[in-house]
Amino acid sequence: MNELHAHYRLLLGLDDQWQVQNVDLQMDANRVVIQLRHSGGKPCCPECQDECSRADTAPTRRWRHLDTMQFETIIEAAIPRSQCTQCGVKTIAVPWAGKHSRFTLMFEAFAIKVLQSASSVLAATKLLKISWNTAHEIMQRGVERGLQRRDTDPIETIGIDEKSFGKGQDYVSLMVDLEGSRVLEVVKDRSEESCDKLFDSLTDEQKSGIRAVAVDFWQAFRNSIVKQVPKAKIVHDHFHISQHLVEAVDLVRRRENKLLRREGINALTGTRQFWLFNEETLDDAKQKQMEDIRRVAIKTARAWGIKEMFRDFWTYRSAAWAEKFFDRWYAWAIRSKLDPIKKVARMLKKHLAGLLAYFEYSITNAKSEAFNGRVQAIKSAARGFRNFENYRIRILFYCGKLQLEPDFSH
């Protein structure tokens, strides 16, 4: 063995079963091809790990390795196949690459870091000089490894939420470990069955340890939670309730705006975003503008005031005092003569137990919503997803906190 071959054998971390047969430097192609050969020792079955006889040799394969001095580096080898009495004929495992992979372990580990750090998958593919499909295969293998390695430690609080997928009423459902700030699983649709599938990603011990679930008012999710983790408290939080109230205020605004415009008054036109502000965030100019509008848009101002008053609900330290406040707020909302506000008030009354559970378990879906930006960026960078499984892999790759890198111990 010459020094060059010994050098590459050391760099590749080859065991005694493999030798460097040739190093082909292709200057015109900016490529170096490292040809390996099996030393002829007894092969091991990749399934049961038993030593067995050699059946034959598979056709020569190639693997992309880390570049050498800006030269694309390729490993080339014909792999023996074992004749196992129990498992049959199997292609043996190689120390430099995973099963079915066309890349070395070192290249995959490097590619994963680039994919995680790059501004988009497209940017990563240009840096790595690989195709989009190849990048997805690397991410998919990484996610599969990560899910197999994921610990089964207890999880006490989770959040279940939905995200849009594709166009129209297409959704995916996500389960988030609220304490660990990680996405646990993603499934298609937002039905009771899909929520059941989310729980299937947990062990029985993990499900029995869940104390509380942050979720919106979607009945399908609630049904699944009651069935899967009957001892867990259902907790409704600030975000979804605020969202319902904001939508109710906007509906009142639109209805009143139509009436005012018939009278030639355009005070509410173009003010949709204005009513999203909280009172303490208004500067002097906006407060003056608010006062002017409220003199004209009486119904919208009343709806906004009811929405603002409900924010005090979350400031109480005990469920008992919060419930007393809710009763007062509810009476005002029902007397408001504003149908959108009354509808939300009745919905909150129906789910009051879930609101009050917040004072026992101060969890919210804020962390679930925090993934919205990342998930939306993933979706936008891919210009939408036609394939749900690709969407799932991408979310888990970037938001699952999984151990994605290949195992170099074998």
Automatic annotation (TrEMBL):
Q: Which domain of life is it from?
A: Bacteria
Cited InterPro entries = Transpos_ISL3, Transposase_DDE, Transposase_HTH, Transposase_Znf
Instruction: Cite the Transposase IS204/IS1001/IS1096/IS1165 zinc-finger domain residue spans from the record.
Output: 43-87
Which residue spans adopt a coiled-coil conformation according to this UniProt entry? none
- For the Transposase IS204/IS1001/IS1096/IS1165 helix-turn-helix domain, which residue ranges apply? 93-142
PANTHER family, per database record: TRANSPOSASE FOR INSERTION SEQUENCE ELEMENT IS1557
Q: What is this protein called?
A: ISL3 family transposase ISCARN113
| Source organism per UniProt | Novipirellula caenicola
